[in-house]
Amino acid sequence: MGEQLLELEHAPGQADLLANLFREAHSLKGGAGVIGLQHVADVAHALENPLQRLRAGDLHATATLTDAMLATIDGLRSLITHGDDTPDDDRQKAIAEALVSELAAGVARDNGAGTNGNGRHAAGPPAGDAAAAQGAAHAQVAATMQVAIQRLDQIDRLVGESASAYLRVGQLLAETLGTDPATIAEYREVTRLLSRLQDVTTRVRMVPISTVTPSLHRAVRDVARAGGKQVRWVVGGGETEIDRNVLEKLHDPLVHLVRNSVDHGIEAPEQRLAAGKPAQGTVRLHAAQRGSEIVISVSDDGGGIDLERVRAAGARAGLDTAAMSDAEVTDLIFRQGMSTAKQVTEISGRGVGLDVVRTNLGLVRGRVEVHSTFGQGTEFVASVPITLTIVQCLVVEASGQRLAVPLHSVLNLLPPDTDVSRAEGQAMVMHGSVAVPVVDLSPTLAMGDANHGQVVVLADALGEQALRVDALVGRRDLVVKGLGRLLPRLTAVAGAGIEPDGSVVVVVDVPGLVARARLRKTGATPDEGPPPHRPSVLIVDDALTVRELERSILERAGYAVRVAANGREALELLRREPADLVLTDVEMPLLDGLGLTETIRKSRTLARTPVVILTSHDSEADRERGLAAGANAYIVKSGFDQQRLLSMVEQLLLAGSSS
């Protein structure tokens, strides 16, 4: 309904849209009444009134009226979400009454009294609408069935493990019979069926990108309205499909990107006209599949990135921006706390947003690049794997050990006799017309001496990085699993998979591997000399059980952990000994998590400390307040996932160590 209202705002009076909206409201009212959500039914009934008057021509679809109806739909969503778990019925009733009152006031403000042009009240809904909506609902129930996501995850894992077992059987047949198993008809049939099964189970989890575009459209409209800008929203490739888990984790970064495009990119109408542009700007989202990746671009035709302002902001943060290239300066916009906004608003100015984009993309093994032309516009390009369950990998060998590199990060393979030159003390190879730094994989991972085989060119957010290996083993579809809670977190390791012979192959984490490669560029040798530094985490929560649970998770992962019961106690600990990262709740006595985060950001010595908020407050407004206070990440306790927490902590610590 929200998306249809936004369409109606750009195509007023469109009969089909109005009919669909009215049927949705009428069906919602009836359904809510049947299952006892009377307050929902009352609000839906109130929403029918302006929709019917729009159909009759008594009202006109204006931005103000759309605001009022969108606010009502937001309220309906909240009432439905909490309708069966809120014992306080009086509170639900008060919320519903307020929604009805605000909707009526919005209609009156924009369009006058509640009668049509000839003084008669608008006609009621056509008798057939409810029946049509009910019939459509029955058809939908017959065509679909709800299945728990956990069951789909289990099926995915079993299919992947079946594929690994199948490869082992093939190897056993080859050793026993002394012949290629592919010459056996039954084996070829199993190959075909297993391939089809793997494809079908992967597709079951796939959803089109268009499932999240309505909320992105709403974000574009809201920011444009708040800033007095005229913005057209365009979507291309919405039918492109991606794993639902990946898309869920991609939603927040996309929201940040489209909001940034409107707020920082699109100019005010008078500025655009003065620059010879149309008053209405365009924000465009385009999705496409490239091999095993989904590439999503968010672009605008606004003013582009002013590199001089970014340099100045970096200099204020204590960075030597004079020696940086334009690409390195552009990349500064992803640093936490970096902002070029001239004033602080609810939307921008606090330096949160784009750092969250890069961090969250890292959690799904993705990356983001930015291309900008000053005065013409900016494009952010996010690349993520289609699915995280089965990962296509290139298996390489270095110092007698096999390692798997996710294929979506591999740009090219160069032959062993590739010429290596040196520039400023760094070994370089030519990849096309670009000079790319190259390091040997074995010493980079402290596994052995130099390698003498092919060169693998990897993609990274800051450019390209080449690795020399001893040999290429081949391509594998691996079911990637974590290493378990008994092992410490390793920045260059994403997990492990099973080879056809039953052996375990380590899957490298490309961002972590590239970061280690760049350390070698400066002569650093993190695996030599004294024992490596154990990153320290300060946990701040007033609940003892929560503190101890988080402590046990992080200590098992190899971190040095301290705890505090409130923000004031945490600050005392930080003043005595800073932490590498702070994990805090919001609601606490003496000083809450938001106040603690703001104090850390204002401190000269602690300002760059990553802060993760872990709280039970799950509304978007609460999330915005947390990020606005300076938090690097915001995790809701109800959706708590141990692996996600560890991945978030690792990504933030890695980003901090490489900056």
Q: Architecture of the largest domain, according to CATH? A: 2-Layer Sandwich
Number of β-strand runs: 23
Number of domains: 5
> If helices are DSSP runs of H or I spanning 4 or more residues, what is the number of helices?
21
Overall CATH class of the largest domain: Alpha Beta
Share of helix, binned: 40-55%
- Fourth-tier CATH superfamily name of the largest domain: Histidine kinase-like ATPase, C-terminal domain
List the SSEs and their pairings:
Layout: H1 2-10, H2 15-34, H3 38-56, H4 63-81, H5 89-111, H6 127-143, H7 149-177, H8 185-204, E1 206-208, H9 213-227, E2 231-236, E3 241-243, H10 244-265, H11 269-274, E4 281-290, E5 293-300, H12 307-316, H13 326-331, H14 354-363, E6 367-373, E7 377-385, E8 390-398, E9 401-406, E10 410-414, E11 421-423, E12 426-431, E13 434-440, H15 441-444, E14 455-460, E15 463-468, E16 471-479, E17 493-498, E18 504-508, H16 510-521, E19 536-540, H17 544-556, E20 560-564, H18 567-576, E21 581-584, H19 593-602, E22 611-615, H20 620-629, E23 633-636, H21 642-658
Parallel strand pairs: 2-4, 9-18, 13-15, 19-20, 19-21, 21-22, 22-23
Antiparallel strand pairs: 1-3, 4-5, 5-7, 6-7, 8-9, 8-16, 10-14, 11-12, 12-13, 14-15, 17-18
Helix pairs in contact: 1-2, 1-4, 2-3, 2-6, 3-4, 3-5, 4-5, 7-8, 9-10, 10-14, 14-21, 18-19
